[in-house]
Specification:
single chain; alpha/beta; five-stranded parallel β-sheet; five-stranded mixed β-sheet; 11 helices; about 20% strand; elongated
């Protein structure tokens, strides 16, 4: 019998948010893989639980090398608990490689749901939550950061980012440049902790605020791109599009109706443009 890999969410701030099952798993797992063993020790002390299993480190620097060892433990029948410093493993934290390796070996993978900075910030932002996408951390280099933001400039869903406090001002300035100063956003700082703060406003306003310096764990939520209005086309372009359709075999009436629908304009406006071009000999 193979073992089970358990991904456990840990508190993002207030230790009282820890789910009861987390305590059970910490006490019963044969192996605990922790992003930071010192932080794990502080967490177990706060929860009043004494892990009985072997504790190993599992962080970005040793994730590739440690994964085969943990897979071997799982294949031998061990229950392996994976915890990161805060929130859910694999969400901008170590875990993906181990989950992928376990799935490949047909090892059972389950989870202890817990606090999530992504969902908490999204809920507190005051921005639309029906559709969203998580973008993680942006690149550190300015050029790469701008390129990544331009890739989602037209994204209609609400965007969620993690960011380091010392890079927040540069990130918000870049977002202002790409998305516009008036695009609504929320900067969520120190969620569930003593100095929790949610600052809401336009990106330009938030960039000015962040320039003074911000501390703590940061999650940024940005409103999606606005819905595009009717396409703005001049009379010459309207006539050109009608002629393209006529040349393809459509009757003029049908071509005018189709172009009007594409541009979000009344058919009469397109018709008048075609007539005016004909009268001008164009």
């Amino acid at each position: 019998m193979t073992g089970t890999l358990v991904l456990a969410g840990t508190p993002i701030g207030d230790v009282k948010d820890a789910p009861p099952r987390l305590v059970e798993e910490l006490a019963g797992a044969e192996v605990i893989a922790a992003e930071d063993t010192r932080r794990l020790k502080r967490l177990t002390q706060a929860l009043g639980v004494q892990p009985a299993g072997r504790v190993v480190s599992y962080f970005e620097g040793n994730e590739s090398a440690r994964t085969p060892e943990l897979v071997e433990a799982l294949l031998a029948g061990s229950r392996v608990l994976l915890v990161t410093d805060a929130g859910m493993p694999s969400v901008s934290d170590p875990g993906y490689r181990l989950v992928a390796a376990a799935v490949e070996k047909d090892i059972k993978v389950t989870a202890v749901p817990g606090p999530s900075a992504v969902l908490t910030a999204l809920a507190l932002s005051g921005l639309p939550v029906d559709r969203f996408c998580f973008e993680g951390f942006l690149p550190r280099k300015a050029g790469e950061r701008l390129s990544r933001l331009k890739e989602v400039a037209g994204e209609r869903r609400t965007l969620v980012y993690f960011e380091a406090p010392h890079r927040l001002d540069d990130t918000l300035a870049a977002m202002t440049e790409v998305f516009g100063a008036d695009r609504r956003a929320a900067v969520c700082r120190e969620l569930t902790k003593t100095y929790e703060e949610v600052r809401r406003g336009g990106l330009g306003e938030l960039a000015e605020w962040a320039a003074e310096g911000v501390r703590g764990e940061i999650t940024v939520v940005v409103e999606g791109a606005p819905e595009k209005g009717p396409e703005e086309l001049d009379a010459q372009e309207l006539v050109r599009r009608v002629r393209v359709r006529e040349d393809a075999g459509e009757r003029r009436k049908e071509a005018i109706a189709a172009v009007a629908a594409e541009a979000g304009l009344p058919k009469r406006e397109v018709f008048d443009a075609v007539v005016a071009a004909k009268n001008a000999g164009a």
